[in-house]
Amino acid sequence: MADGEPVILTGFSVLGNTISPTTLTQMKTTIDRHYSAYRRESCAVVVERRIYVLIHTDKQEEARTIAERVLHVIDRVVDGETVAAVAEPAHHSGSLTARRQELDAILRCHVRGSARRVLARGDVQSQLLINKVRDTIAAEPLVLNARLAALIDKEQATGRGNLSETLLCWCRNLGNTLRTAGELGVHDNTVRYRIQRAAEALDADLGDPDTMLALWLQLRAAHEEQPSR
Known about the structure:
- It is a single chain.
- The protein is α+β, with helices and mostly antiparallel strands.
- Helix content is 53%, strand content 11%.
- Helix 3 links the parallel strand 4 and strand 5 (118-120).
């Protein structure tokens, strides 16, 4: 690409990392063929089980529309749920590495069965932040609440106990006991009892916003890591 000429990078991936080399080749062939119908100068490459396509445009919505149309065609040849992400426009070749990293972060935010299969950064800004925090938690155990980590480990190991699940739901509902009770299918007094027990076990002031936020982030990271969830 010539510096100053805007381009947009789009990434395609199959959820679950179950794609075979043969299917990946078929997928790239399909993308090459159909992208050329929209942009003759398009270029597609395979990198680590993902396919990245470069087109000359600065219109992100146009890139999204093309990706949506191509996904429908890919569905005919790929046995799996294929998704895509569209990066911000790049205006010089030196920014393409950053745009690919942006796509990888966005693709990570996809969930199975979502109605929106092509995402841009603005669609998942909050999830991008959550994922970054999760990575920090995984890499820096010193930021963890040790008592909460022990509680989670014990409940996951024994398959017994519901304090961490209740606390996660309660934090997600911003401390709303009635809403938490409805989501869990229990009496609101049961939620109050569990939250009191959790506060005592953690020796934490759950009325403090910073404490609630920190516990919620740790709980969310731990529960999302469970294979069954």
